[in-house]
Specification:
By secondary structure, the chain is an alpha+beta fold. It has two domains: about 25-175, no CATH class; about 180-250, Beta-lactamase Inhibitory Protein, Chain:B, domain 1 (2-Layer Sandwich). It is built from eight helices and twelve strands. The strands form three sheets. It has a six-stranded mixed β-sheet. Strand 11 and strand 12 (about 240-250) form a beta hairpin.
Length: about 260
């Protein structure tokens, strides 16, 4: 009887496992992980640092008192309006867990001095492009098991606490930048003092890059444009743009002297 009961129990567990697997196929699991990992979002409410995952129900609700308690104990992982990044995605039968900014031990500690808006470069220091002071973990819990859900739908579900809309995130971030850099982004040009992220926002991805070391300083040129026509060289020393140079390549491949950047 004991072995029979054990067999029934194992069979029940196997059936439960198969039923759960049917709710979320392997293809869906891969799509969720790919669609969420390394994604950026804007915090819509304060996110506390927490040793255990903060539970967010699939109904769009969360225990605000519990989140506030974690915040009082460990400090904030992100404030409303901060940019955060999903650094890891874990799938279980009843929940999708998102590690934010490296989790509890990631990001900056809440008691450290945090400077924001003096330059975009600070935003990316050590946290994959985040302005938030720390990290945490959020578990999206489904009462009847994780269904066949796509990453885009999970992002919509999380909108009360995380806004994954890149347009919203970009707007919020640009507002923190110095006026001259905001104008350069709007005018779609690079200027000295920008970093790689703001250059990408202004000009997009370069068609080529070159690197050299000069007087002990590592320089990197980003090259924009195709001959014949204007070619723009954006030079970085470290993380900052130190020079922007325009040249014109003619039909014969000749290049006119660089124009003075004003």
């Amino acid at each position: 009887m004991k072995w029979k009961a054990l067999g029934i129990t194992l069979a029940a567990q196997l059936c439960a496992g198969l039923a759960s697997a049917e709710k979320l196929t392997q293809e869906a699991r891969i799509e969720l992980i790919r669609g969420l990992t390394a994604e950026h979002a804007t915090a819509k409410s304060a996110l506390p640092r927490s040793k255990k995952a903060l539970v967010f129900e699939s109904t769009g609700t969360w225990d605000r008192a519990e989140w506030e308690s974690a915040g009082r104990e460990h400090g904030p992982a992100a404030r409303s309006g901060d940019m955060v990044q999903v650094t890891k995605v874990t799938l279980d039968d009843d929940k999708v867990t998102l590690e934010i900014n490296g989790g509890f031990k990631g990001g900056r500690k809440w008691y450290q001095n945090v400077q924001v808006s003096s330059s975009v470069g600070m935003r990316g220091q050590g946290m994959g492009g985040s302005s938030a002071p720390g990290g945490t973990t959020i578990a999206v819990r489904f009462a009847k098991g994780v269904p066949e859900i796509k990453a885009v739908d999970l992002k919509k579900l999380l909108k009360p606490v995380l806004d994954f809309d890149p347009h919203s995130a970009t707007e919020n971030f640009v507002e923190t930048l110095p006026p001259e850099i905001q104008k350069a982004i709007k005018d779609q040009k690079a200027i000295e003092g920008m970093d790689r992220e703001t250059v990408l926002m202004a000009l997009g991805r370069p068609r080529g890059k070159t690197r050299e070391t000069k007087d002990g300083v590592e320089l990197e040129d980003w090259i924009y444009g195709q001959p014949p026509g204007k070619i723009t060289f954006v030079t970085f020393a470290g993380s900052k743009v130190t020079r922007v140079r325009d040249a014109y390549a003619g039909l014969g491949g000749s290049t006119a002297p660089p124009l003075e950047v004003k």
